[in-house]
Amino acid sequence: MYAPPEALLPSLAAAIGVGVPLFAAKARGRTYALFALVLVTLSFPAGVVLATRLTELAGPRFGAAVGWLFVYAIGATGIHMASLVRARLRARWIRYAVSVPGMTMLALGALALPFLVALAPLRILLGAAGAERALAALAYADWLPVALIAHALATSFGARREFVRIDLSDGGEPGALTRLRALRAATPHPPLARRPLRVVQITDPHIGPWQPVHRLARRIAELAAHDPDLVLLTGDFLTMESNGTRGALAQALAPLAKLRGRCFAIYGNHDHEAPEEVRSGLAANGIQLLVDAEALIETPAGRVQIVGADHYWEERDERVPALLKRYPRRADHLRLFLLHDPLGFRFVPPGDVDLTLSGHTHGGQIGLVSFGLDWTVLSRSRWPDHGLFGHGASRLYVHRGTGFYGFPLRVGVPGELSLIEIVSRES
């Protein structure tokens, strides 16, 4: 007898939820097996419930198509996660046929879980009260997680082109970490009497299914075409897939080879998973890696001192000020500090650095930035999420990221492709 697609979903999800972690444990080890188990546990139960409800809502005309779409997505999730036991970058058709729908399904299930849990009490109350019409109307709210994921996909595939001007003399000297205003525009800012320092920051590109080599190379070429004085790369270049693909980073960064002498980089947290691959990819294009080191450079806008920090998992309160003390401010130099995780900015002695450039947060990843508001899910957390901040005379700029890792959950927070103009206090 023909089984409708929604009837296959529980058994398929259970088979993948058990089979993939067992296969991963044998083929790759316990750590990835536990990682896979946690992901499917957080995603599949709610994903199956949501799929069943949406199949019913779609009715006899479209229900089967919706059901088979979820069967395909859950199957793609299993294939993608199983393939990560031998992680490497895949051909374009595999990315779009397997990896993208698989990770989208994981993200949809994870988003649907709190949504379904939050609505469950209301559904129970309406059912107990016999309010069938209200219950039927509420059912259409189940399409909201799908709409949210559709928005996230559109945001995640794109990135916002911006021209950002940071005036280091604006904002006073706040006694605590304070969000300040950076001028943003879709077109170049009017010229100033004194030329500002022109910087391209590349952070968190995360080469992988969502950011293949050719796309990152194209975006970097677009940024390099602005002829910046400096290109500063603040870490997290790879993913599991690109960790296992020799030469991927070198190929993606190739447009920077023509800017040799102007490009400086630091490690992010993920770069310590494959440090030599990152080091060789940078070196192949003449990019100087700063691991707790400094660089001095003459630019058309004046002399610049760059201090680059390694990624610190702990003891930031000691290591950040110790690094800055080891490389004190140089006379007549603009002092820049490259620090992957902006959480460490709180340990920068106020006034000791003109501008710290960070990434790591992906701009908060979920928020209202697309709608012109600064709020993100990290706004009330310890992390400065995106944009310009001040503490004393020091400034921090948190870039929203050139990419992201894993799941398409850039919701309302687009990636950033920007030319940053730094206006010094003497300008």
In short:
This protein is α/β, with parallel strands linked by helices and 427 residues long. It is built from 10 helices and 14 strands.
Named CATH topology of the largest domain: Purple Acid Phosphatase, chain A, domain 2
Distance between the termini: 79 Å
**Category by helix and strand content:** alpha/beta
CATH class group of the largest domain: Alpha Beta
Strand count, sense and barrel status of the largest sheet are: 7 strands, mixed
Helix content: 40-55%
**Estimated radius of gyration:** 24 Å
State the fourth-level CATH superfamily of the largest domain: Metallo-dependent phosphatases
Total number of β-strand segments? 14
CATH architecture of the largest domain: 4-Layer Sandwich
The tally of domains stands at 2
Proportion of beta-strand residues: 15-25%
Strand/helix succession: HHHHHEEEEHEHHEHEEEHEEEEE
Taken from the alpha-carbon principal axes, the silhouette is globular
